[in-house]
Design brief:
The protein is mainly beta and about 650 residues long. The chain contains two helices and 42 strands.
Length: about 650
Amino acid sequence: MVSPYSSYTRRGFSAGYSNTFSKVFRFDIGVTGNIGGMNTKDDPDAYSGEYNKVRDNVFRANTSLAWLLNKSWVTNLKFDASVYYNDNNSHAHTFYSYASEQPAVHATQEGYFMASKLPYTYFADQIIDSKELDYAASLKYEWNRRFKTVNSNLKAGVQWKATGNVGEGEYYKDPSLAPNGYRPRPYTAYPYMHNVSLYAEESLSLPVGNTLLRLMAGVRWEHLFIKGTNYKNLNTLSPRFNARWQLNEHIAIRGGWGITEKLPSFYTLYPKQEYRDIQTFGFSYNNNESSYIYYSQPYTLLHNENLRWQRNQNSELGIDVHIARTRISLVGYFNRTKLPYKYTSSYNPFSYDVLQLPEGFTMPTNPQINVDNQTGMVYIRDNASSYWTPMDVKVTDQTFVKSTSPDNGMDVIRRGAEMIVDFPEITPIRTQFRLDASYAYTKYIDNSLSYYYQNGWSHTSLANRSYQYVGIYANGDNLSTTANGKRTHSLDANITAITRIPKARLIISCRLEASLVKRSQNISEYKGKEYAFNVSESSNAQTGGSIYNGDSYTAIWPVAYLDLNNEMHPFTSAEAENPEFSYLIRKSGNAYTFAADGYDPYFSANINITKEIGDHVSLSLNAINFTNSRPYVKSHATGVSALFTPDFYYGLTCRIKF
């Protein structure tokens, strides 16, 4: 229950069967599912007739067959197959009310079109019908063997997965009532994504003197198949290596190294259809009626033939100690994400005619309107017996249109350490404590060039024209106006107490979670120097000092700019002093962009109680933040308070074993 007028219902079920035939064939089959949904109605005291309905049903089926051969060349073979189906349908019945006529552009082809009109008041029904249907299958080979004192375990296999959606997608029941700019998006228009992977892993265990050394090496190759994509060679290779050296019964040293390659998302490889709409003419008639002409242009995410696959390289080194009945694990890690995916914007010059009524023209009360879809010229007449009157061209506006393409950013570095301490059980109270903590440090700087242009800017010297320049900045499309990177520090710690009461067949687990350190600071660097500079609130003139003092407004210059001839020019101090380029000097909206930020510690506690009833039934009560500790903590930079601990909530689970 979310509120008196919102409710969510979920009913879960599961069933499984397992058996071994002739001592060599092990067969498993199972089904699980959830049947549920959400209903939201208006508060009766604020009635408008709106509602939301969501159907959310999930079904999973899986089966496996293991052939326990136990031969000299194979230990076992295993085949797995599964089906996943998620029927998610949402229906939003929404009320709209406007004081004047509103245009709605729904064109799906390039050209000039007259927008339809929305009613002053109406209900619109938006449907999002998603039916995700996935298939998967795998074949796994395992070979366990022993060579004198060396134990070997070899695993290899092939996997296949198909992911797709057979739902009707996003649409309105009455397309004429869809909001301005909305177009339907049928999910069946997107092809299935097939993933085929091969993998192999070898684990060795061998004595070295009085010690034991365990080695593991593996490699995984994946390939994607998407019908209609422009990207080729959609395959990755991910090797890894781990080692553990047990020096004695008390101390072990371990380490690992691996590279994971990641392919772009589906909608990068097969972009969604998007549209841009530019108004070219608008006029009123018959007292309060209006009509609008738009130029519509379909477009998609651009193809980047130079896009490289993201790689995540991870290394770690740790030590495990078992002494005085206490187990201690310490590990340090270093992670570098190379060529992380991002989206880059670019701009191209674009011109179109803006129309106006001819001088002396009298608009008919009920005009007939004809639009040339190719040229954008609009013709108006009073009735079928009168002549068409072409509109005048007010101005040919030259502007820039934005395009977006996938790209690779600069490396992201993460390093940190983790610790786990398992204390011995306190026998009189049958309670065991665990302490775990983690420290993480992250830093990234992306000073690759990015383009920025603000629609609505006016030409500095020509009336009724758009601004004539695009700024090119060394900030990698960072969300912050003047920063191009960030560094963060965090330290978290948790204490868990587990109490077992065998006679009552009861287990009580309580966990205290703490965020002890949470620090961050924006960065702005380019060519080894501070890229941003301090300015006053009312001026773009440099005021000196370091931006990292965190007590001043900041700004950046573009490193270059683009003109309407699509030519790039360097941006120098001469342009900075020229009012014609003032729009291109980007300024922060506050004086704390580069102030050291962070929050004071905060805590929450969770509890889980499990009770076994007989041999087949168990009940579990799980309460999150059961003390309802929700303190506001203030940002050190902004002074704005925030909540980070979750709302108190609880759940009850019943497990039945057959």
